[in-house]
Amino acid sequence: MNRIPVPSVGRVVFYYALGSVGGKFPQGEPRAAIITVVETEGTPESAVTLTIFNPTGFYVGCRAEYGPEKAGCWGWPPRVPDIEVF
After folding, report:
1. How far is residue 86's CA from residue 36's CA, in Å, rounded to a whole number?
2. Three-state secondary structure call for residue 21
């Protein structure tokens, strides 16, 4: 059985940037974001409202559709494997 993550308030996700005029910040660049509102609770591909953390500050209240690696959308960051420590 496959497990599918479901968005919920407080989860960290990626927001794929729209890019900046002049190309200083490229389109589709992943930015850390925190979910502040989920439109359809319990739905894996629900639209959400985000607080987005950019290199030059943060943006509050950005509504985004689910669309991994699509500019202007949100998606789950890749899983990073745990490491063994001694």
Report:
1. 37
2. helix
SS3 52: strand
Q: What is the pLDDT of residues 57-66, one digit of tens each?
A: 999 999 999 9
pTM metric for this prediction: 0.89
Residue 57 neighbours by CB under 8 Å, 6+ apart: none
Helix, strand or coil, per DSSP, at residue 68: coil
User: What value does the mean pLDDT take over residues 20-39?
Assistant: 92
Q: What are the φ and ψ backbone dihedral angles of 23, each rounded to 5 degrees?
A: 80, 10
CA 52 to each of CA 14, 16, 25, 64, 86: distance values in angstroms, whole numbers, following the listed order? 9, 10, 14, 11, 36
Q: What is the mean pLDDT of residues 7-15?
A: 97
All structural domains of the chain with their residue ranges: 12-75
Residue count of the chain: 86
Find, among 39, 46, 53, 55, the residue nearest to 74 by Cα.
46
